[in-house]
Amino acid sequence: MLRNIMSVAASNIVGFGTSFIINFLLPAILAVSDYGYYREYILYTSYTYLFNLGYNDGINIKYGGRELADLDRQAVNAERSFVTFFQILMFILMLAVALAKQDMVLVFFAVVTFFDTMRTYHQNFLQAIGVFSIYSRGNILKSLFYIGLLLLSVFVFRSDNYYLYIILNILSYVFMYIYYEWHFGKHFGYRFTWSKAGKLNLFRIGFFILIANMSLTFVANVGNWVVKWFYTIEDFARYNFQNSMLNVILLIVNAVGMVFYNIIAKQRENNTYMNIIKQTSLILGIIGGLAFFALKLIIVNFLPQYLPSVSLLSVTFIAVPYIMLSRILIANLYKSRTSEMVYFRDSLIYAGLSLAFVMAAHFVSHTMLGVASATSLCYLFWYIYATELKFPYLKNTGREWLLIASHIPAFYLAANYLNPYLGALVYLAFLLGVVLCFKEDFKTIWGTLKN
Questions:
Q1: Chain mean position to CA 450
Q2: Membrane-spanning regions, if any (predicted)?
């Protein structure tokens, strides 16, 4: 397991570097309003997966916990052929709408949707069967390809046209699609095989998972939408800037989450194992707070126009442990231990309540800080509901509650009332105390990860 985590994490660290460069370079060369429009496109791309209508999620559920050697290669090939044909139809429909509206951003969105949904199909399939080496190499190559084009555009062509950077984003998805198709052909052949058998069931199961996943994605973006609706494009750019900084850190979270779905699917009845995953995610999320101080230092010294984003980032960073738990454990437990209808219902309720709560925070505070604080609280409340009520075998111990209660003020005070250097030292001292209190737990976690 540790090898798989390290493999995927290594590829995501390269992706981390790419995102880090992009998220600091583009705000420096684009006008604040242009960067806002670019981030608006990126916000739209977070919903491209909706256009597979649940097929890819059905693939994830169907093959979760299975091994590559045991698969019916003809059936797998037929499923890939079907999704390719289906996504081409979706692309044609989306492109027709975009051209009718004469909207270039919609044209870009139609193009990227085809390549991203196909990428998601391959990633869901590989994640389900536990094959992470292909995913890892692809991520590294994509990151190198993307950053190469980006640096060429910035330093050679010296372009400040945000359309160009949207096109570069699309090309990175094209590259990833070609890479996955090439590897798929090596294992399963390139032959186009048509069959409708069993496809409706994949849509049926996957559609509810899709909407549930969409609801969780919506919670992650609910602050962005509220700011987009009620604030200026410059405010939106600054709010989205801090969100993009948070997403850079969460690249590592996604790496761990991909590995753990396959493991959770195999360890369906092992509650002790689930508690180890919970504690691992909680502690790693708290340790990850150190990254905030490096980001703050860079913003203060090199991107002063985004200084208002620092206080927002300090609030959203408090939620990192609970975001990790939501993505790594809670979502995967819903997929593997409950029916798709239960996951669908609970996620929709969570999304609706989160929207209402964040909207209320806006109308009460009329500040982006209020919006960011409400979003972080949504993650905390979801964590409490899942561990204390939905999955009672995950109930928090007294020490875990003490860790949660001490982490929030310790991080917030160090992040907002001290300079980056002193703040990092104070928070590091807090982390050393955590290590001492959870010394035996660290040994258990390490032993589990090595197996």
A1: 25
A2: 12-32, 134-156, 162-180, 201-221, 241-261, 282-303, 309-330, 342-361, 421-438
- Alpha-carbon distance of 151 to 275, in angstroms, equals 44
φ, ψ dihedrals at 73, nearest 5°: -65, -35
Q: How far apart are CA 204 and CA 28, in angstroms?
A: 46
CB hemisphere CA count around 84 (13 angstroms): 18
The set of residues, in sequence order, having a beta carbon less than 8 Å from that of 55 and lying 6+ positions away, is: 82, 83, 86, 121, 199, 202, 203, 206
pTM of the model: 0.75
10-residue averages of pLDDT along the chain (451 residues) = 63 70 79 81 83 89 79 87 93 94 87 94 86 82 87 81 88 93 84 76 87 86 90 86 76 62 64 82 87 89 84 92 88 83 93 96 95 95 95 91 94 94 95 86 68 60
Nearest to 335 by CA among 279, 411, 271, 265: 265
Measured CA to CA in angstroms, residue 371 lies from 179, 376, 380, 384 at distances of: 40, 9, 15, 20
- Domain assignments of the chain as residue spans, ordered by start: 1-197, 212-446
CB atoms within 10 A of CB 159: 15
